[in-house]
Structure to design on (124 residues):
C-alpha cells in the first residue's frame, strides 16, 4: 500500500469514528450508524479502486478490460444493494449517511494536496 493510500485510510477511519461519535451523541443511534456505515462503504470502495485500478493500468490492458468491466459492475451492484438494505431497514439516518459518504473524498483531496505541496518543484 502506498503512503498516500495508507494515510487516506487512517485519516478516513479516524474522521469517520469522530463524526460517528458526534452523530451518535447529537442524533442518536441511526445517525451514528449512518455515518459509520457510509464511511465503511466508502473505505471498502476506495480500497477496491486502488487495488484494481493499478492492476488494469499495467500491461495487458486490452485483455483485462472485460474483466474490469464485470468486476466494476459487480462492485456497483453490491454497493447499491448495501445502501438499499440500509435505507429500507431504517437503521441509518439519510443525512448522516450522506455526511459519511464525504469523509473519504475529503481525506483524499486534503492529503493529496498536502503531499503535492511537500513535493519539490522541478528545476529547469
Amino acid at each position: 500500500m502506498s503512503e498516500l493510500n495508507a494515510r487516506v485510510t487512517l485519516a478516513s477511519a479516524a474522521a469517520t469514528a469522530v463524526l460517528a461519535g458526534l452523530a451518535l451523541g447529537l442524533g442518536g443511534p441511526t445517525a451514528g450508524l449512518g455515518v459509520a456505515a457510509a464511511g465503511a462503504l466508502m473505505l471498502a470502495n476506495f480500497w477496491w479502486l486502488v487495488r484494481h485500478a493499478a492492476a488494469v493500468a499495467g500491461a495487458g490492458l486490452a485483455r483485462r478490460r472485460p474483466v474490469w468491466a464485470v468486476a466494476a459492475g459487480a462492485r456497483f451492484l453490491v454497493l447499491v444493494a448495501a445502501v438499499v438494505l440500509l435505507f429500507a431497514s431504517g437503521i441509518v439516518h439519510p443525512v448522516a449517511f450522506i455526511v459519511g459518504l464525504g469523509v473519504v473524498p475529503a481525506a483524499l483531496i486534503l492529503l493529496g494536496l498536502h503531499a503535492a505541496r511537500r513535493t519539490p518543484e522541478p528545476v529547469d
Remarks:
- Residues 3-116 form one domain.
- The chain has five helices and no strands.
- The two ends are 32 Å apart (CA to CA).
